[in-house]
Automatic annotation (TrEMBL):
Domain of life of the native organism: Eukaryota
Originating organism: Adiantum capillus-veneris (Maidenhair fern)
One GO BP annotation of this record: regulation of phenylpropanoid metabolic process
Gene3D superfamilies reported for this sequence: Kelch-type beta propeller (2.120.10.80)
InterPro entries: F-box-like_dom_sf, F-box_dom, Kelch-typ_b-propeller, Kelch_1, KMD1-4
SUPFAM superfamilies, per database record: F-box domain, Kelch motif
Protein known as: F-box domain-containing protein
Any Pfam family the entry gives: Kelch_KLHDC2_KLHL20_DRC7
Domain (F-box): residue spans on this chain: 10-50
Length: 351
């Protein structure tokens, strides 16, 4: 790299700085210019340098369908560009040109968003498919299929790998099995079973461990438990964490922001206090949001999507919390359309 001229007449350090500043949406165009630029953008050091210099961008991905009364919703991926305060849709998965699989899960790994499982929109059969959209290349590819067909499972990414756990099988039996997917090698491995069945659980990464929160068993439909199970990725072992979450409440709103856990409970944003093992209120929700849809972190706050009012209009807000934001506050975000349905899964690309 040191012996080539990335940009004519510019010193290498200035040329590199220019390329490191290019927006996420333009990275795919860089790779088409020449082999040197393609090699640079594809290298792990490219993202590391963007992060170190503060050029990293946050783009929130939500799974949204436009309002279409009387018909099965056709979902797509809406992308909120925090830097430019704009929205756009990702191109559809080639295998599903008319909408994403229903109830699929999404998780971000580097400059990629991974869509796992869900139901076939035509037959409603449970899918094991994995699709990966690479923002740097602006294209979809197929990943190795999940070993186990499961619905409403927990999934989260950690150290470039994705863990899926719990959910239920095609007979509505809650699962305690778990698997791990390496995006680079495109390979799945089985993990040890959790101690309990956990349908409709939530996975988060916290304090160096992956935690599967709450869920319910086959015999206790809808009765969300208070416990969680933490996975040590090195030892590949689970340990039970008692009283991690309020019993009887779905855990879908939990989100990690700047190393801290936040969630929505009783009309408030709450923060998890590890020392007391309690969730403490931080800020009341805006009156415009009566029904929660999804949440995902941004660089300076948490993006929250919900519904309110008789017309069930869509409302999107940003909660500014944590360091540098005192007192906590709300900011309205321009929505990508004013109606439609939103799935309770979201993620954030950080590149």
């Amino acid at each position: 790299m040191a012996d080539c001229e990335l940009i004519p007449s510019l010193p290498l350090d200035l040329a590199l700085d220019c390329l490191h500043r290019v927006s996420l949406n333009s990275l795919s165009s860089l790779q088409k210019v020449c082999s040197s630029w393609r090699a640079l953008v594809s290298s792990p050091s490219f993202q590391q340098t963007r992060h170190a210099k503060g050029y990293m961008e946050h783009q929130a991905c939500i799974i949204q369908a436009t309002s279409n009364p009387g018909k099965t919703p056709a979902y797509g991926i809406s992308i909120f560009d925090e830097k430019h305060n704009t929205w756009e849709y990702l191109p559809p998965i080639p295998d599903f040109p008319n909408g994403l699989p229903l109830f699929c899960s999404c998780v971000a790994v580097g400059a990629q968003i991974v869509i796992l499982g869900g139901w076939d929109p035509s037959s409603w059969s449970v899918l094991t498919s994995v699709y990966i959209y690479d923002f740097a290349r602006a294209r979809w590819r197929c990943g190795a299929r999940m070993p186990t067909a499961r619905s409403f499972f927990a999934c989260a990414a950690m150290e470039g790998k994705i863990v899926v756990a719990g959910g239920h099988d095609q007979n509505k039996n809650a699962l305690k099995s778990a698997e791990i997917y390496d995006v680079v090698s495109d390979m799945w491995e089985n993990l040890a079973d959790m101690a309990q069945e956990r349908d409709e659980c939530k996975a988060i990464c916290f304090n160096g461990e992956l935690i599967v929160v709450s869920g319910f068993s086959t015999e206790s439909q809808g009765q969300f438990m208070a416990s969680a199970e933490s996975l040590d990725l090195v030892e590949r072992k689970w340990r039970t964490v008692d009283n991690f979450w309020p019993a009887g409440r779905p855990p879908s709103s939990i989100v990690l922001f700047k190393g801290q856990l936040f969630a929505l409970l009783d009309g408030h944003i709450v923060q998890f206090k590890s020392s007391q093992n309690e969730w403490e209120p931080v800020l009341a929700l805006p009156a415009s949001i009566r029904v929660f849809a999804c949440a995902t972190p941004l660089s300076d706050g948490i993006l929250i999507v919900g519904f309110g009012g008789a017309a069930q209009s869509l409302h999107i807000v940003r909660c500014c919390v944590g360091t540098g934001c005192s007192p906590p506050s709300w900011r309205v975000v321009n929505g990508n359309g004013s109606s439609g349905t939103v799935q309770q899964t979201a993620c954030t690309i950080q590149v």
